[in-house]
Design brief:
Distance between the termini: 53 Å
Number of helices: 4
Strand content: 25-35%
Number of domains: 2
Number of strands: 10
Structural class: alpha+beta
Length: about 200
Amino acid sequence: MEIKKVPISLYAEVTPNPGVMKFVANKMLIDQDHIEFKNIEEASPSPLAQKLFHFPFVKEVFISGNYIAVNKFNIVEWEDVSQEIRMFLLDELQSGTVVLSAPVAQTETVLDNDQKVEIPSDDNLGDIEKRIVDILEEYVAPAVGQDGGYIRFMGYENKVVKVLLQGACSGCPSSTMTLKSGILQMLQNMLPTLVDDVEAING
């Protein structure tokens, strides 16, 4: 029996971050949870992301599940370039351009001030930290993913939870409100007396 290949479709979706547009496919694009590239050198494991960086207005590329979130510089408006990017991505995916050549483990990330920070290993977390990670992954990450972003636990000290915002959440004007009203409130409800504040290390 012949197996029919499903044609690839792709649509553009706005995010709460005016600088970021999500391009959503009808198939999974990568096998790992997510990957973020801040420049063309970082994007060497992804031929598709490298090609995206050839557009002069592309600032960062974030890939997760079935979508690609593109962060642009403010030299263009999305209404002028979103269709161009959508057609480019559609052509590349249909022609078989590799999205990710091999799984990439992100052990560190570079902040906007060029500071490198190490991403904590799950093996080194204490009980409270593990509970925080579980809450973030179960309750927060899915909602953030809907908006084209990702939240990663980075540390817990003096009752302050530190997180890294990636994808559309990075630099988003509404991310501070999300942190303070949504995530902080949830952590305080689920871990009474243990959390006083939530800070984004790249916020």
